[in-house]
Design the sequence.
């Protein structure tokens, strides 16, 4: 009897680990697709596209909640010719494979409309949520 219990628990743990590992790989693919969309379509398009409907982003002292606020904020930027590059250095996911997060370093550069180049380096932290359609969207950035 105990052997059956041990085997069952092992199977459950292995199944959970598989979901977790699959989620981590999918989140890294989402990060790569997100960055590619920034390069191909621009910052505003990518940040809105990859946002969960209730996503929140913090920029300086602002907390922007929802796609509409994120879109409005991105559209109001006074920086053009933007480049945003980032590299996740860590990824993890919940055991059930529905929530995860990444963090790493980013570099942001652009041209102020008033003149002059800006450049920032820093650390990012993104929380990802699996959507009902199987896609990953960020809920916090």
Sequence:
């Amino acid at each position: 009897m105990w052997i059956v219990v041990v085997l069952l628990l092992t199977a459950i743990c292995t199944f959970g680990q598989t979901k977790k590992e699959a989620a981590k790989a999918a989140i890294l693919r989402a990060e790569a697709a997100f960055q590619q969309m920034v390069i191909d379509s621009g910052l505003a398009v990518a940040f809105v596209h990859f946002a969960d409907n209730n996503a929140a982003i913090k920029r300086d002292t602002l907390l922007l909640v929802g796609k509409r606020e994120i879109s409005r904020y991105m559209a109001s930027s006074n920086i053009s010719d933007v480049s945003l590059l980032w590299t996740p250095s860590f990824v993890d996911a919940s055991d059930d494979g529905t929530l995860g997060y990444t963090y790493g370093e980013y570099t942001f550069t652009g041209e102020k409309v008033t003149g002059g180049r800006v450049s920032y380096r820093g650390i990012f932290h993104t929380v990802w949520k699996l959507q009902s359609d199987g896609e990953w969207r960020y809920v916090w950035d």
In short: Residues 2-10 have pLDDT under 50 and may be disordered. The helical segments are 2-41, 43-49, 67-75.
